[in-house]
Amino acid sequence: MAVWIQAQQLQGDALHQMQSLYGQHFPIEVRHYLSQWIEGQLWDAIDLENPQEEIKAKRLLDSLIQELQKKAEHQVGEDGFLLKIKLGHYASQLKSTYDRCPLELVRCIKHILYTEQRLVREATNSSSPVGSLMDSMSQKYHQINQAFEELRVLTQDTENDLRKLQHNQEYFIIQYQESLRIQAQLSSLATLPPADRQLREPSLLSKRATVEAWLTREANTLQKYRLGLAEKHQKTLALLRKQQTVILDDELIQWKRRQQLAGNGGPPEGGLDILQSWCEKLAETIWQNRQQIRRAEHLRQQLPIPGPIEEMLTELNSTITDIISTLVTSTFIIEKQPPQVLKTQTKFAATVRLLVGGKLNVHMNPPQVKATIISEQQAKALLKNENTRNDISGEILNNNCVMEYHQTTGTLSAHFRNMSLKRIRRSDRRGAESVTEEKFTILFESQFSVGGNELVFQVKTLSLPVVVIVHGSQDNNATATVLWDNAFAEPGRVPFIVPDKVLWPQLCEALNMKYKAEVQSNRGLSEGNLVFLAQKAFSSSSVNPEDYRNMTMTWSQFNRESLPGRNFTFWQWFDGVMELTKKHLKPHWNDGAILGFVNKQQAQDMLMSKPNGTFLLRFSDSEIGGITIAWCVYVFFIGERMVWNLMPYTTKDFSIRSLADRISDLNHLLFLYPDRPKDEVFSKYYTPPLCKLDVFVFVCPVLCHGLRIICLSFPPLQLKLWTDT
């Protein structure tokens, strides 16, 4: 939509150029009312020269028509009535125009978008190649597609030159044969009488001289053609390598990084369709140039002419083989990662995909993929090309799978659906390292040939690190290892090295991402929540966020060392909060009813200025996965207002009776902090009572000195004595 908003600001000739893009073939009203949808589609992922892409184009056409029809249905009022008719007419018109040729719709819209972007870019008068108003992602894709267009032109140019060279060489060979025939005639003159020889010899000698002079000139010309063609191929291969670097080292690596962060709850890594389309274009262009270079080598062998061309062709052939090898090995990727906390004797799945498999016809002889589990040390040795075949780290059942080609999507992939880790062999651990800190990885490997066994590839790819557990009680600490690795791993690292300490703001980002994903909430951790966590992590009392900006937290502080005065680590406490919220408190967290990250003293300070019966919900400091109710009450027998805390509720308690029902049961809780009547907040979650239970709270004078409270009720409500939360 950003491009359309900018396009509407065009003036003068640029505006007229933009308007001329539209007509009956694609009405400007469709562009206007569906601008956001149009700019959100991956038009560039469709190869217009590939007839098989027509299925994708047809899907986009159908979606476009559906969007138009939906937009028409939502029009109301007098003006809306006319627009409804007009949009419905456009839907029918577009279906009639493009139903039999949906690729033409894609071509039309791509042309419109590219032209609009160009006009906007020119209108910005910016010195940058894109202009400040251009969307960076669209511009990046545009640059990639421009490079592909340049490669297409270069490849077509060298194809034309190669045909011309072949034609000239064939004519040269004919003339060379003619020179041999003349030479044979001259040799045969020796058998003739002298008079006849003298009569015919001058003519043949003249012919031979003319042909040999032509052959000398033409040999030089052919050599120049060959050198010129080789230099053009050098230019093409340099651009190919540059384009491949952008796609593999930038775009694909970024996709893998997004996939890794998605393991921590980050946004989905996105589909691979556009990446596959780019990789397939690379493969097609590389293969075309490789065939051209081989044909040029064949022509050289057919007619050897001394010069540097032999060395140049050898170098070109080596370069193009290296480029295609890099492409094939780099595009063997894991589309769906195995679980990073992997429990033995438990079924798990994974999917691997070869992005260029369809284009290189690998599916004609479907390869088999094998999965094995290897240790961190074995992964390091593998990347150093050291032999690790004799090392065994575990046994995976159902670890072989044949790659399948899916005609409709053009993907070649292997779906491991029923793998199971039967056993694991652990290495000797270092120092304080526990089993839940030991990292393994799933190695996927395969072998296949390309081009009728011209090239044979052995491909391998490693999964994200996995932590193997044998019992559910280890899940908490294993998740901590995975979280730290996913968040702080650097691209291109030695497996699986991560920093031992990180800046607090970096950790906050990872914790917030994980919390939102686990709780499935758009309400993340506020700055105040993060200050509370910093106070807990660093045993600090500062409430100023700036005081923690440059502080670092070590792995040991995160999940090895217990918090002061507790028998659990920082991560174990935080994970307990997430689990409790995810299972029992999600709607209340989303409603903002739970402050949660508030300590006992803060709760007291907040409540003392509020009316009696005001309460808040905070996570327990002393118990993993607990939440307590703090409320303000006037204690008659001592004549003072006080803040009391109930014993924390846990998952076990909420499996008996929900939080909302427990709050409903407590008649002395009146207002949720700061001043919201509790029924206004919680009544929609109350369970309709089968019978009314009388609940009462009284203070035991004997225990008054310790400020302890005893809350009694009848089952199923259970309120307990509590002094330390």
From TrEMBL:
Stored Pfam families: SH2 (PF00017), STAT_alpha (PF01017), STAT_bind (PF02864), STAT_int (PF02865), STAT_linker (PF21354)
Gene3D superfamilies xref list: EF-hand (1.10.238.10), SH2 domain (3.30.505.10), STAT transcription factor, all-alpha domain (1.20.1050.20), STAT transcription factor, DNA-binding domain (2.60.40.630), STAT transcription factor, N-terminal domain (1.10.532.10)
GO cellular component: cytosol; nucleus
Keyword list, A-Z: Activator, Cytoplasm, DNA-binding, Nucleus, Phosphoprotein, SH2 domain, Transcription, Transcription regulation
Gene Ontology process terms (BP): anatomical structure morphogenesis; cell surface receptor signaling pathway; epithelium development
UniProt cross-references to PROSITE patterns, sorted A to Z: SH2 (PS50001)
Compartments reported by the entry: Cytoplasm; Nucleus
Keyword Protein biosynthesis: no
GO molecular function: DNA binding; DNA-binding transcription factor activity
Stretch forming the signal peptide: none
Principal place of residence: cytoplasm
Keyword DNA-binding: yes
Superkingdom classification of source: Eukaryota
Domain named SH2: residues: 589-689
PANTHER family assigned: SIGNAL TRANSDUCER AND ACTIVATOR OF TRANSCRIPTION
Similarity comment: family membership: Belongs to the transcription factor STAT family.
Protein name per the record: Signal transducer and activator of transcription
